Every structure is written in structure tokens, then in C-alpha cells.
Amino acid sequence: MAGYSLSKRSWLGVGVESTPGTALVAPTVYHPAKSIMKGTKKREQLKEERGNRDGVYGIVDTIREGAIDPKGPFYADTSPYFMLGAWGAVTSTQPDATNLPNVHKHTFALADQPKTLTLFKNYDAAVYVGAYAVVEKWTLKFAADGKVLENDVALKHLYPVKYAGAQLTPTFSPVQPFAGYAPQITLGGVSTLDIDDVMIEFDQKCTLWYPAGGSADFAAVYFGERTVKVDFTARFDTDALYNHFFNGSRTDDSFTIDVKGPSLGVDGANTYYQELNISVPIISYDSMDHDLSKDNVLIKAKATAISTANQTGGSPMISAFVQNLVASYTV
């Protein structure tokens, strides 16, 4: 009797590629998320004049690609793999190597050539592999009222192939997500209690290069323009924040979130936490709309990050660090 393929038995494995497009033989970690891995082909329908009214006389498969969309809570140990895929560079240090050697701080920065990933998607009855995975969109969002930090990612990769290696048995860490009320928000250099939900969205253009050479798969990825958007909801008890957009002279802000989870260790006066910190040095407001759907008046703010990285004393659009018990994200 055949077995039963069950949705709840699905899983997603992730690893960083040493050479773009060279698939890993097994996942480095298993990431808790909901995701669907898709394979798509561009197909050419043959519709020439052939002496009758029939519409299609044949179909020719041309190029192909894959895509996947992991969605779910942000986990401080496994979600950073997608941060590396989005931004491209990471530097890992030990804040207290002598007394707490298991605590590591990973600082993420923008790079022209982001890291590529190999993704393993299990559907219970079969496992599929998507190599040369690149992040097109990375989104972090949270709401204070009854939610957790969430991380949605959109990736492109090579057309999925069926996994042919040894049987994989997923194992997951005990790390839990951050509660949505936990982030500490700093706006314009000042801590604020006026904001209750936030979405940070990183987008980059990825052009897949299909050469004439006998293969339907892309051979390289070219990374283009990248942008960062910051949207949030704030209470309108005063019009101080609203005036940053409303006044004729533009007033930009900096935007930082810092969220701490459980303690990873204590050394004297220093406590090291599981932590996520994201900094957007300059946001310029695109719009601020009043919202009367709640008992209190709110404003919905939409902003774009501005880069001054090529100026003296300037800064990139976005940077971040994660503190956890993971030694490295590049091995």
C-alpha cells in the first residue's frame, strides 16, 4: 500500500553556496517557514498558418527557472541566511571570546555580489533542490498587538531538480521568535513609544543571464538597483512627526529597531542577549495619511531610505547585526 504525503511533514533546508550555482549536497540548517518551490518554463506556442482554424499546432519549451517564497516568523539563528542572501556581506565576531566563546555577533552589510543559497524543499513524497538561489525581496514586519516578528522572502533559483542524495532527516533548533511588542524603536535619534507596527522592505533587481549554449537554465545572475522602504503606523497625539512630511522644508529621520530575546550569557556587568538590530540612517517620507479606523487617530507613514555611502562621512542605506549562538553563516 502506498504511503501518504502530508503537508505538515514538509520542510525547508538552507545553505550558503561556496560557488554560485554549485549546489550543496545537504542543507546546513532547516528553517521553520511556509513555502512553495515552483518551477516555471517559457513555452512558445506554434500558431502558424497551416490550412485550418486550429489554434495551436505544438509547444516548444524554452528557458526555465525556479522560485520560492519562505514566509513566517523571524528566527534569530536561521533567518539571517536570507539576510546574507539579500545584503551580501557578513562579519562575525565574538563579543567575549574568553568567557562566553559561544556568543557570536554577525554584522550584515551591503555588497555588490550577494551570496547565493541552495534550497532544499521537501514535500514528504520527494525532495527538490533549487541551487543558485538569489534574494529579490526581503521583508521584516511586526505589530505590537499579539504578533511576532515576521520575515517574508522572495527568491529566484535554478529550475528545481529532484534530490538524489542520502535520506535527509530535518532537525530544528529550540530558538523562538521575538514578540511583536519587544522591538525598541529609535526615530530621529530619539526613542519613541508612538509606533505600533513596522515593515522594512529590501528589494533588488536580479537579471538572469541565459546564453546560447545548449542549456535551458540561466548561467549567471546580474544584480541591479536596490532600494529600502520603511512603512509604519504611529499615533497622532501631536503633529510633531506629521510635520516632518507636511512642512515645506523636508525633515528626514533615522530609523533603528533593536529587539532582544533571551539571555545568552552573563559576564560580570555584561549580559549578552539573542538580538536583532537594524539601522536605516536616513529615511525620507513619501507620504503620511491620517487613519480614523481606530478609536485614536493614527498616521500611516511611508518612507524611502537614502544612501550617502559615496559621500565623505556617509552611510549605506541599511545595516544590521544579529547576536546568537551560530558561529558562522559562510561555512
Automatic annotation (TrEMBL):
UniProt cross-references to InterPro entries, sorted A to Z: Phage_tube_2
Name of the molecule in the record: Phage tail protein
Organism: Ktedonobacter robiniae
